[in-house]
Batch of 3 targets.
Target 1
Amino acid sequence: MILKYGGLCYANFLSEECNSYGKGIQIGEGEFIQIEDNEEVFYCNYKENEIEQCFKKFEVIYKENRLIKRKIDNKEYTSAYFDYILMKK
């Protein structure tokens, strides 16, 4: 991705608070492969400090730790995200 100086971008990352964290086959730290609908799905969950190390060339304009709770087929799920709006320095 190419972003000019002063340009904005949105990024979000799964956090370790997601209830999918730790399920499936672990292939790395915070990385898991799960089988969903007979397909392999790769999940990568992050700690907050891991993400922000990547933003040295950006100013964080907005940051939110977002939890979404929902029911699917009478089973409760929690999705957890780190959302960012960044401006290139």
Note: The two ends are 15 Å apart (CA to CA).
Target 2
Amino acid sequence: MSETIAWIGLGRMGTAMVERLLAAGRDVGVWNRTASKADVLVAAGATRLDAVADAARYDVIVTMVSDDAALRTIHSESGLLNGPVAGRVWIDCSTVSVEAALAAAAAARAAGAAYVSAPVSGNPGVVHTGNAIFAISGDDEAAVDAAERVMSDIGRKVYRVGPGASANVVKLCTNAVLSVIMQSLAEVAVLADGLGVRRAQLMEFINDSAVGSPLTRYKTPNIVELEFPQTFSPFGQRKDIRLALAAASDKEIPMPVLSATEVEYSRLVASGLGEGLDYAALVLQVARDAGMQLRPERAA
């Protein structure tokens, strides 16, 4: 089965994901609040949608938006669910709170549509290479099946993680770990530099050790070369941390390490040191706090 797909939200991630669908031969309609963002996809074969309500003509509607407020707008203000969406599947790939996902699911259900949470793990570069992964969850088995088929045309692996908003929980937990690891890498990189060890040598060893991972390897050029092309902003990373902390607070689950990490991301955002840079710019903040001036190195 090859569902037709309406895609709403064409930021860097959304655009990269639609490009994968088009390359897979999918029939995709696209809409974005800033219409010009759809131009490159229309040129590649997508159909431009004049209004959000036009998405109801497609079998599956996918949204990729920035936060809870944007997702709420989709179902409360944009008109998406005011059209003939009964029997349609709405898949949301955004990183949002459990509460926002459940509210969207309830709105979809009231309109006769099925809702699936399908947050993506990766950045635009990872999506382009087909290596993104998805966690998916929902209460309608057929809708979850459809989501798995669509997401399989975008990424490397799709994980079914349970009912309801389980996928949103998985994504927030994953991003929490990622945030803490990045802060720790920044700290030890500055420590090694201050003790006379080249950051390139440190990262080469870490990457081959038990704690090495795709993340440590991917972030090595940032830490070593001190160049920070943005894959995800410090502001966006802090947003995800705060969503996880809010969920933990609701359940009275202490998260001291993540709480301390949130402070460091907040300092990076407030200082402006990470403006326009990747969140790996944390290493610059750690160095500044230590009174050190890091110099770019060549990766090993």
Note: The mean pLDDT is 97.
Target 3
Amino acid sequence: MRLAPPPPDVRLPWRPDHAGLLHALAFAALRVTGHEHALTHALMFDPGAIDLPEGTPNAMDAAQLRAAGPLYFAAELEAAGLLRCAELVAGLFASGAITQPLGPVAQSINAFWRGRRERLEAAEREAIFGRVLEPPHFERLMGALCRAIVAQADNADTTGVRPDLREQVGLAASAQSLAEFLAQRVDAMASIAVRDVIDTINQAIGFLRDRMLQAAFGTHSLWALIATASSSDGVTVGSATAAQRHAERGRAGQSVLAWLASNYQSASLLLDPRDAGDMELIMSAQRWLDSAPLASAQPVPGAMPSLPIAA
């Protein structure tokens, strides 16, 4: 008598830690990589071929607007203290202050430290973010666009869509206002710099996510490590939750700005909550609105950077 074969193993879908953050980072990298080709194509565009009103984004601006989303995502991660944490950890590693074995991630930290002079410094990054996302104007225009996006879902009828000319035109006007604002500020320098910043963030997340590194500093998550580093560096960022909220706000804002780069030229816009893509946009806009602006980090004069390394 033969026994029946055992049932197949149950395989659950695997999701890496910080899947949403990694997906947003991959999206940003794709946008800025493709942006270079779009910008090259735009340089061959004859602006005299179409008579556009002054201030309306043209083909060159459309190519540059593709960089706005990744740049905003990077700015929120900067506000969260991610790169500041990576630079501090790499400096401590290079000085020999980290004595615990870190395994293969040590090579990544060492490479990050050796490349420190080849990337933008914190002051340079913040200058670019401040120029492009000039406060308080960006927040006001972004808020108006997100509210206009959400309004179409709030006022949809049972069929999913209720054509409302005022909402369509209002959404288009909000999109064009923000696009014009960004087109004047995402210059060639910002377009080139965002690639460097996204690449730097990618390297930093690569080793900051490592469990052995987190354990060496007595933490158990990426956000806790960032919060600990910010506190030790004399910067007021807040808790791990506050750092994570910056990242979530950056993800949501990047999604809205990616949609803006493709739709700002429309005279009227209608979103269908029954459409998966439109619904994802509406949810991103609502998430951005729900994440109230957090206080910007300010260094404490005279503070000495040091991280508590677990014994």
Note: The chain has one domain: 19-38+60-290.
